[in-house]
């Protein structure tokens, strides 16, 4: 009898353990880390690197607490999405060299690797430019007020901005 009880208890524990582990095993890395930190990720952060998703989420939360509207207008992009933007950029600007100032091909875009967020509205971007370094978030290009990346350690200083994406 005792052996049966122990076996049943062990089985119950095993079931409980697998139930507890299963959801985390299926969550993407950013969500898993956010759950661990007790943070729910901000809208628009799906597919970003865990570091960027969490840094942006914390900035977004602080912006809201300060009464500032801030949202992601474009985050992670698939290679196909970036390829379409690149083709459109070449059509709009007349040449790959001219297009590169505004859009990069899939192999070079930090949106494809989940390492960039475009934000809006302009007032929110201005707030993020002034405050984002608290989480390591920096505006990267002079010609794109909306584009931010993790570019420095939190609380240090953002590196000098590049003129545009073509100077990368
Ligand atoms: Zn961007």
| Main β-sheet, spatial strand arrangement | 1-2-4-3
Low-confidence stretches: 1-22
Number of strands: 4
Please trace the helix and strand order, writing H or E for each element: HHHEHHEHEE
Listed once per kind, the bound small molecules are: zinc ion
Derived from helix and strand composition plus strand pairing, the structural class reads: alpha+beta
Helical segment tally? 6
Please indicate the percent range of residues in DSSP E strands (runs of 2 or more).
5-15%
**Sheet of most strands:** 4 strands, antiparallel
The average pLDDT value, as a whole number, equals 89
CATH topology of the domain at 28-76 and 114-167: Muramoyl-pentapeptide Carboxypeptidase, domain 2
The CATH architecture of the domain at 28-76 and 114-167 can be named as 2-Layer Sandwich
Which radius of gyration do the C-alpha atoms yield? Answer: 21 Å
Indicate the percent of residues in helices: 40-55%
At the first level of CATH, the class of the domain at 28-76 and 114-167 is Alpha Beta
Distance between the termini: 72 Å
Overall spatial form: globular
GO molecular function: peptidase activity
Signal peptide: 1-27
Domain D-alanyl-D-alanine carboxypeptidase-like core: 50-124
Keywords: Signal
């Amino acid at each position: 009898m005792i052996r049966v009880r122990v076996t049943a208890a062990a089985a119950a524990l095993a079931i409980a353990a697998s139930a507890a582990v299963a959801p985390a095993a299926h969550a993407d890395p950013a969500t898993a880390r956010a759950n661990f930190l007790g943070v729910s990720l901000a809208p628009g952060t799906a597919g970003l690197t865990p570091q960027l998703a969490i840094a942006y989420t914390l900035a977004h939360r602080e912006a809201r607490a300060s009464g500032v509207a801030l949202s992601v207008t474009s985050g992670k992009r698939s290679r196909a999405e970036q390829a379409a933007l690149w083709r459109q950029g070449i059509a709009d600007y007349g040449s790959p060299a001219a297009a590169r100032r505004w859009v990069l091909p899939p192999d070079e875009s930090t949106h494809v690797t989940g390492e960039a967020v475009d934000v809006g509205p302009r007032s929110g971007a201005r707030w993020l430019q002034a405050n984002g370094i608290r989480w390591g978030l920096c505006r990267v290009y002079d010609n794109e007020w909306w584009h931010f990346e993790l570019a420095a350690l939190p609380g240090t200083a953002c590196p000098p901005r590049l003129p545009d994406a073509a100077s990368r």
